[in-house]
Write a structure and sequence with these properties.
2 copies of one chain form a homodimer. Chain A is α+β, with helices and mostly antiparallel strands and 333 residues long. Chain A has 2 domains: 138 residues, 60s Ribosomal Protein L30, Chain: A (2-Layer Sandwich); 161 residues, Phosphoribosyl-aminoimidazole Synthetase, Chain A, domain 2. Chain A has 10 helices and 12 strands. In chain A, strands 7-9-6-10-8-11-12 form a 7-stranded mixed sheet. In chain A, helix 5 crosses helix 8. The interface between A and B is large, with 77 and 78 residues. Strand 1 of chain A pairs antiparallel with strand 2 of chain B.
């Protein structure tokens, strides 16, 4: 590795361009970045780590896509609070075989997302490491009365998601086996996995409704994330419908697997899981469709039983250990 | 590795105790942490990465000390802006041989620092990784008129540091060779390296003075960091006195090396480098001593020449490539 930290910072600043500066009084190049927070809003912060071989595979995914994906995965946490992003910082770990051009390409992806959502990359760190890794911190702002937690769901609420599930998991599978899907579905599955989009406008819009009682993102799979919302809210969730993305439906058709089970377990979709007061659901769904051209899909309902259950073909089965966890024994992702 | 992300989060919350919550409306366990920023102050943010084998050696330093050191190294950036810390987030990369007890020990160190400086650890991430790594983001607040940048130094200003230099570098050397120092100095050098203290109260106090024109921390060595301040401020710095910590003086005595050169180059002291209007220096120094019981040490002066130079025994030599850089070819730290 033949470049200095100063050279890396210069290259990063160049790639970020305007994204390094907007509305930030002191940005990259001082000890800390400085800005004037909103006087009326709450600030929200979230940090996520992305490690080569765990969260992405540099071997198969280009560095600009890795940058795009890391940003969206991080922003998804702000979307889930109903916040709009204001700035981000990135701690980059660089192994010996990563060149300065690689760093530039990675930040080209980062800058694309920052420019699209009008926030600044205000700082970070760049250090030698045995493995390529990014730790992304995003800071956003949200009106206090709009901020949505996981814990606000009530018995009787409808649980909905902002889109069909499983396309990202199908993309991950398609990376490993290119023959599982036809070209068109393979491309869209790969895009879903590599360029997963944070539901920022949808999150802000939903957060503005008093009928939305709880919200979180669906990054670890619908089953696991519903279990978290249920636990935080002190209730149970009965799932009745799993909306399967066409990529996952085709993949399951090809392999003979159960598409709904895969969609329930598959993570990294970054759709939002929303608990909505049931009397208001149909109206909110119609307004959501008018605004975003997409459907809020009801997947179940909050009840007083413990845990998450799935009613399917007349049977109700407990949903546990769906989704995945970086630390499960033998789990490599 | 036999523990889940949920188990890690539970253990972390337990270790953090009150440090996880204070003044934070939504903390660990939701998608993002949420708080009410000061209505009058600026917010400041900084992110630093710490990688085993690069910034610390797990082989020789206990995990609680690694936690303490990572927090102080990060907080030093807030100290350099004159900010007080409000919250932190941590992205933790955990290799297979790190146990849940190890994670607890690490966060015990983190919590000690958070409790001492009254800020919250409001969130983070915990993921599998081939190497133990922490990316620490600290967020602080500072009155706009008090925030000090690197770029404010003026020609004629006195450059001062908040303490003698080189004890941390001596500690690093003493780790590699236990026979360099006697027991007492070895222990204090190791403490300086492993528990380096961010100059938070000193930074806030200095930031309150209009005679302080620029401030930064001295994490990469006085020579290199003065070069950054000089470049940011568009001037040069002539160094005339290098205050050497007793640990480094003893080490240089034992090895026959040049103590001042080592102190100039050695990083991770986390003293503050301050540019002060020269007419006010003596008075500020006296007040600083009265307040903190320690001396502000004048090390040089800003002038109109380019770069950083060191006047020593009648000769003036350019100071370049002092201090260190993670990315230098062949550099392993």
């Amino acid at each position: 590795m033949g470049f200095s930290e100063n050279a890396a910072i210069a290259a990063i600043r160049q790639e970020l361009g305007a994204a390094g500066d907007s509305r930030i009084e002191v940005g990259i190049g001082d000890d800390a970045a400085l800005w004037q927070p909103s006087r009326s809003d709450r600030s929200a912060i979230s940090t996520d780590a992305f490690v080569d071989g765990v969260h992405f595979q540099r071997r198969v995914t280009s560095l600009d896509r890795i940058g795009v994906r890391a940003m969206h995965a991080s922003l998804s946490d702000l979307a889930a609070m109903g916040a709009r992003p204001r700035l981000a910082t990135i701690a980059l770990g660089v192994p010996p075989d990563v060149t300065l051009d690689d760093v530039r390409l990675l930040y080209r992806g980062v800058a694309r997302v920052a420019n699209a959502f009008h926030f600044a990359v205000a700082g970070g760190d760049c250090t030698a490491s045995p493995v390529l890794s990014l730790a992304v911190t995003v800071l956003g702002e949200v009106r206090s009365s709009h901020a949505k937690r996981r814990s606000g769901a009530r018995i009787g609420d409808t649980i909905a998601v902002t889109g069909a599930l499983g396309s990202s998991a199908a993309g991950l599978r398609a990376l490993a086996d290119p023959h599982l899907l036809d070209d068109r579905l393979r491309r869209s599955a790969l895009d879903a996995y590599e360029l997963a989009r944070a539901r920022l406008p949808e999150g802000r819009w939903l957060a503005g409704s008093t009928h939305v009682r709880a919200m979180m993102d669906c990054s670890d799979g619908l089953g696991r994330d519903c279990a978290r919302m249920a636990q935080s809210s002190g209730l149970g969730i009965l799932l009745e419908h799993i909306p399967v993305a066409p990529e996952m439906a085709a993949l399951a058709g090809a392999t003979g697997e159960d598409a709904e089970e895969l969609a329930l377990a598959g993570g990294e979709d970054y759709e939002l899981i929303v608990a909505i007061a049931t009397p208001a659901f149909a109206h909110l769904q119609a307004r959501f469709h008018k605004r975003f051209g997409e459907r809020l899909v009801a997947v179940g309902r909050c009840d007083a039983q413990a845990g998450v259950r799935w009613r399917r073909s007349g049977n109700t089965i407990p949903v546990d250990r769906c989704g995945w966890d970086h630390f499960e024994v033998g789990e490599t992702r």
